[in-house]
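pipeline/complex-builder :: batch 7 item 3
reading input block
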Amino acid sequence: MLLQDKLVQIVTNPQLSPKQKSNYLALEAEASLPYMPISTEVKAAMNDGIICDMFEGHAPFKPRYVLPDYARYLKQGSEYLELSPAQDLDEALNALTILYHHVPSVTNIPVYLGQLDDILMPFTEGMDAEVLYRKLKLFWIMLDRTLPDAFMHVNIGPTDNIICRTLLRIDAELKQVAPNLTFMYDPSITPDDLLLLATTNICHCSKPHIANYPLHASAFDERGFGIVSCYNALPLAGGANTLVRLNLKEVALKATSISDFFDAVLPNYCSLTFELIEARSAFLHQESHFFDCFLVKEQLIDESRFAPMFGIYGMAEAVNILQSLTASGEVKPAKHSSYGHEYGHDTDANQLGYRISAALDAIVKSTPVVHGYHGRALLHSQGGISLDKDVTPGVRIPYGTEPNPIAHIQALAQHHQYYTAGISDILTIDETVKSNPQAMFQLCKAALELGFREFTANVASNDLMRVTGYMVKRSDIEAFKQCGSRLNTTGLAAEAAVNTGILQRQARVIAHEHSPCVFE
Amino acid sequence: MVSQLLPFSCVDGPGSRLVLFLQGCNYQCKNCHNPHTIGFCDACGDCVATCPDNALTLINLYNKPRIRWDSERCSQCDNCLAVCPKQASPKVTHYTVEEILGILHSQRHFINGITVSGGEASLQLPFIIALFQAIKASKPLSHLTCMLDTNGSLSLTGWHKLLPFLDGAMVDLKAWQQDTHRYITGRDNHAVFKSIQLLAKQQKLYEVRLLHIPSITDYEEEIDALATYLLLLGPDTRVKLNAFHHHGVVDDALNWPSCKQADIERLAATLAKRGVTNLTLPSCYI
């Protein structure tokens, strides 16, 4: 299609708001520029669907994810925004609202809204609980209505405090798509009844995610980290400059044997992935002038705290493909078609999966990058995008073949140690759990104890459901086809529903962030 | 003899539970949702030819005919259950107490306890006593609560043997009137009332379950007597209202009306009006 035809299609689309149209027009404009210089091998791997740049654009002029130091901002105010330091809760909420509109991301909407209990607690002294509730509720409604993107993430916990409890109460009450919510859990700090409150919320609205605080904290330095978008763990006052992902299924298809995969094919495609990472971050850091902005000048972010994310997906298919290869490269006769022998179910298959994760971890930890966190990229188990077909997100077990929740957790737990930048697993639990939050609590606690970095559950009949890491309302998907949606992410979910048959399967969905060609 | 082992359930007692469904039942409920758990296989072999996956074979073990089930081949189409003349299943597994303990051990962090259900679990009472006793005696497992899901037909002698190792029971009260109970289950309900009373007295009655079938069960007609009785059990006993649906049901009961949300809510409201407030309603309706 000619560029002009595409633009006309966007401009005249009956389902998009003017603002959404502007976004899509901008994406098309960037896509019309020549791509950054890359080798023919990288180009071929991209064309073959082995390496994917997540449709981040041809000329990255903003980082993928930005995690500003909001605490510093509230303390010092902002010269650029002409704001003095916040004196009370109203000023703090107002100041945050202002800054959110200046924090870029791949979707143009901030993906990180801060560790809200930490940064707001200093302003709550002497405040009546009901007054606090009213103020935070209005703030929560404002976020959903003005920044309608389910990738936008608030963090709370692991301490027990009134902001944390009030936000959990409000979130369960409003059941909004945005903001997304992560509750940090630390068994040595978080009381059981607070975790039970959080897991009770999951039963009602599939939020929050529960993050394994000690595990994440030990992976980053004392300046801290945040959980953003769909379970990406990234340095605070930094972020991700880019995300490039590797399709392990396609890599496995190039291998003639398991040893060929580990010795030659995987290292080769990893080095091509790094080449694309370097090209993309070089443009952002050296040519786009992004790091001249006030966020850097006022020390809300620090260029040295941005890391590329090395994403992977299609682990399940990769393992099943490799297991069907014999040492001589012949394809073994297929076993019974039931799921018993495959990834997620069979011990040998799972072990091969862990071996692949360990190999990726070793490669990512030993490969220097020019613009990284301590000179390195961060490994990420990537949750899929709406255009993926016949390939399973991250290291997940394919849809509809998941074992019971306990076996599911046990099969995946060993992967979690390797994915510093986050791992997106979603546990589907049938709706009977709604009247038994204690069961959810127990599953969650055991999963984290077993080494899960993040516990994310989807209760099967909830109107709110997860598409990868973001929430959409089930009823919104139905309604979208007719009348469009106020929420940017519903478009992606509708596409994911069509492409992957998610609504017929267990109540869980894939898809991910932005792609410029959502509407055909 | 286990018809199914469910590693994770959230509807069979408090918290997250492993559930063992034991094969065999002494009731013949017309409305049974799992009729293939009632009988015992006599190796007649009728099911063997109906298996599309060749997972069933008729074998001879110690000079007795047996059906061997290959779980690896089985695709769970359940053709075998449909043709079984005995309301039995060739897909039962025999477990020893040690094997169950091993399974519990591997998932002890994920669960709050174990529930033994059926069929009618109490028909295999010696196994249950041995299992619960072993759980209580094992240090890493002793935090797990041991619950029984039962139709209440066990004798008082049987209960007294089990009580030292039992944390709680869920008992079905399938109908209030003798005649109604006999019409639905084929058995009278004297033993059920006795079991409920004993368990309540021992403070081990976790839950009484009422499966509501509009126009068949007599809870609404007998609401005053029922409510008075339930109140006497004390505030620690939950009253769980279940809604009859057609899933799994065979024969006559398919013509019975399924129970809708409004039916359950009406029953709940009439019970609540009479002071029965510790009610649990279904989280979904089929």
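note: Chain A has a mean pLDDT of 88.
queue -> next item
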